[in-house]
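Folding Task

Wanted — backbone structure
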Amino acid sequence: MTNSPLLSLDARYYTDASIFEAEQRGLLARTWQFAGHASELQNPGDYFTFDLAGESLFCIRDDKEDLKCFYNVCQHRAHRLLTGSGNTRLITCPYHAWNYHLSGKLRAGPNIKAVSGFNIDNICLTEVRVENFHGFIFVNLDTNALPMDHWFPNVRDQLADYVPDINQLKPLQWVEVPEQCNWKVSVENYSECYHCKLNHRTFATGVVKPETYDIQPQGYCLRHTTECQNLDKMTYPINLDANAHAGDYSSWFLWPLFSFQVYPGNILNTYHWRAIDADHVVLWRGWYSVEGKADRTIESLAQQDRDTTVAEDIGLVESVQQGLKSRGYKPGPLVIDPAGGVDSEHSIATLQQWMRNTDGHYFD
């Protein structure tokens, strides 16, 4: 007797607006999400705003130079407090001029002393969990969430091994890539290389050796590993003697919407997905250099990536989204090789199991 093959998820997981709304209330509000880079907040009062799970938030450096994150809403009558990015001495609401210390505590407001029993010490902006992960700021709306090192074991140390200068890196460029598909379609595409040899010729022949490619779970992380291509075939120069991992490629996909990716030569880049609605996602492609200084090799590689892998993937994921809406589509079996490897979708089985998890921890 043989086991039946594992089928892919039903199309409704990618097309149903009500499922996306449930993800906003549940999954995306209860997992660690990338907010921005710490280099954007170098001085007390530096801040930036962003949206997450239907909420407006802002990160700020307080007077003690600690990183803080707050819901972007005044505790008086719910007006938005900040827009964009910048520097401020106080957080002042533009509606009635209630103002808050950088710590989030209310400082003053017009005529509040006239209110009997008003206790200024009881009013503070609503804080959000925040972690600094090698300069990358992550937040979680779940106040009871376990730390990132629990969710993604060993990733912090592994990144430091693969990118020895990671704590000196700053963004060199961030490129916004809109995709007309569900975020899970784009994430699944990233999380397997079964399609790489056919669809990503430059990546598969000029960056990595596909025959050495594998992906394995590591907590709620999918760890990609492979060797660099032969030096005479590489599309950019690397020095194999620079350090132990100079010839390696690895990425760490942090469920559900972020990935650290290290190209051969210890070049760090990131993928960051922002889910818009059931049919749209925006991918932020990030590249980093020491102190954010111009680097010809990294800039050339980033351009190559945009012209090849990124452009190629847009067509793939958008075609899949269209196909998921077809009456003719029925979920097919995943190709799972017990030995793993590049021609296996075992990583998709792991992802889809996380997506199927409806015990209340992820989906509302």
In short: The two ends are 38 Å apart (CA to CA).
